[in-house]
From TrEMBL:
PANTHER family: NAD-CAPPED RNA HYDROLASE NUDT12 (PTHR42904:SF6), NUDIX HYDROLASE, NUDC SUBFAMILY (PTHR42904). Gene3D superfamilies: Nucleoside Triphosphate Pyrophosphohydrolase. GO terms for cellular component: cytosol. It catalyses: a 5'-end NAD(+)-phospho-ribonucleoside in mRNA + H2O = a 5'-end phospho-adenosine-phospho-ribonucleoside in mRNA + beta-nicotinamide D-ribonucleotide + 2 H(+). Residues 39-160 form the Nudix hydrolase domain. This is ADP-ribose pyrophosphatase. Pfam families: NUDIX. GO terms for molecular function: metal ion binding; NADH pyrophosphatase activity. Its cofactor is Mg(2+); Zn(2+). The keyword Secreted does not apply. It comes from Solimonas fluminis. Belongs to the Nudix hydrolase family. NudC subfamily. The keyword Metal-binding applies.
Length: 174
């Protein structure tokens, strides 16, 4: 259950845990009818192929040297998830993405997100956006994956390409 909400956004009364269809939800304790459904946020992710390599990037907020897929929120103004993932590739890497092909959707429970993953072929010169600290180029045959959300998308795409990627532990986990 979300810990971010303590008061009703409609009437300011304290929220309380209430059962709704067998699921505990935060709801208005004063009875105005507000229920915080805590639905997952949609996020697009790109397995970016640039030439013969995959591009993985490290976010400026991440400690250590963990590199992952390009991701971003699906905005209300995005015409489709396919166009959103191409937009994210351009914003984060400065590359022109084309031909997004759907890989799958994955739960990222820790962040309450649903990841919609695509393979995107990209052209141009890499210019990192403000959210990224650095990137690496990885030949698909040498790529590894992490056992969560975007890592599983990478694993699934690699397998469709005939590779047998090895799992690496997530940072901070053994």
């Amino acid at each position: 259950m979300s810990r971010g909400f303590r008061f009703c956004p409609q009437c300011s009364a304290p929220l309380a845990s209430q059962d709704h269809d067998g699921v505990p939800r935060l709801a208005c304790g004063a009875g105005c009818g507000f229920v915080h459904w805590n639905n997952p946020t949609p996020v697009v992710a790109a397995v970016v192929q640039h030439g013969d390599d995959l591009i993985l990037a490290r976010n400026v907020a991440w400690p250590g040297k963990f590199f992952a897929l390009i991701t971003g929120f699906l905005e209300a103004s995005d015409p489709s998830p396919e166009e959103a993932v191409v937009r994210e590739v351009e914003e984060e890497l400065g590359l022109q993405g084309r031909a997004p092909s759907f890989i799958g959707h994955y739960r990222f429970e820790r962040m309450n997100q649903i990841i919609i993953a695509y393979h995107v072929v990209a052209d141009g010169e890499i210019r990192l956006g403000a959210e990224l600290a650095e990137y690496i180029r990885v030949p698909p045959a040498q790529a590894t994956y992490w056992p969560a959300a975007t890592g599983l998308a990478l694993r699934d795409w690699l397998r469709t390409q005939g590779h047998d990627p090895q799992e690496i532990p997530l940072p901070g986990r053994r």
